[in-house]
Amino acid sequence: MKYISTRGQMKPVEFQEAVMTGLAPDGGLLLPASLPDVGDRLAAWAKLSFQDLAYEVISLFATDIPSDDLKKLINNSYATFEHPEVAPTVEIGDFHILELFHGPTLAFKDVALQLLGNLFEYILEQRGGTLNILGATSGDTGSAAIHGVRGKPKINIFIMHPAGRTSPLQEKQMTSVLDRNVFNLAVDGTFDDCQHIMKTTFADVDFKTEYALGAVNSVNWARVLAQTVYYFYSAFQVMEKTGTNTVQFSVPTGNFGDILAGYLAQRMGLPISKLILATNENDILSRFFNTGIYGMADVVPTISPSMDIQVASNFERYLYYRAGQEPEKVVALLDGFKKSGTLAVDVNENGVVDDLFVAGRGDTASTLATIKRYKEQFGYVLDPHTAVGVLVAEAHRSADVPTICLATAHPAKFTQAIIDATGEAVHHPTLDALADAETRCDSIANHVDAVKQYLVEHI
Ligand SMILES: *Cc1c(COP(=O)(O)O)cnc(C)c1O
Question: Which residues have C-beta within 8 Å of that of residue 67, sequence separation ≥ 6?
């Protein structure tokens, strides 16, 4: 399988190269040159364990990794999950909840980042060399990335967070990882400052090359690929249980990475009748699917912080398909967006952008009310991100098609919102254990030179 750029200016590369490349040199995102049609394999796949299914899906794309190696990589990646099924689906009221939070940091990002860490290690073993990951986080991604590469000898990871501005729990999830290859940097500034330092450091190409810097980018193809697996896995279970031959998914959305994986699964032949895109008050994507206009607005902080985005980094991959897989059209749309801050596509005869998608948003009050209602009615506590997905799904339920709602985080990660909604906290032993955990973190000035100096001293 070869990979191309959404902007059309990259020589096609193999899977391993695609994983190491992250962002294409022309600024585009990587996609497979063609998507396999798996329609005639679905019946056989329906009986597989999560790991075996992951192997079947991923092996179609990772064609330059021998099958025994790939099997081992996948099995190791999901051995860190505390649930034997990795991503179980439970029935709650009218909905089927796909629990993606059984990994080491209790958020769905583990599904992809556990695999990505192992892929990086494997590829470095094949090619030689080392990798020094530099990242900036406001919370969730940093800890999932750290847990994906901790203890790996050929990899160091440096994660900057704004000192005193991430939640104490999220900070602890990062700084309590004491492996020698993990470096937490508390930057005396904001998250934007951290991101600025990261971008400036990466822009110094000589420095980047000399110190083998890399990113655990949210746009890395391997992350999207790993996420397609659970759409298949859950759909098979729910279709079997309900005797239907199609399902719909509701996805709490920020950067469009998670729902994009569902979109690709559908394009590969999984019978998904609708993708329900759910956003919080930061609703650029739900406005787009309802109006055809993608227009920037300011980010407002919410109780579902991992969905507080302004521009969705994975959206360009959807645009590529939407534009008939013609890179020139993608580039034209993006150029227009850069100049004017808006991008518009035509709506169809049904008045929507895409018949596969419906979209809606939930605000803080309705999200808290949903958490409360599910606890009272079903004794099940939704985290605030999942609750947004559930409440938007309620407007799009169907009598004939079962709805699967993706649960993207464990509620214990968002203590305050859960207390506000229900009056009491939810606990998880992994998080409770952090209370007395030893931590390691270095404070650093809000300046790119200070961070570069730190990298030089510690690499
Ligand atoms: C990252 C994240 C999301 C949003 O996923 P995208 O791929 O960015 O759309 C939703 N919920 C949680 C808990 C997350 O960590």
Answer: 55, 59
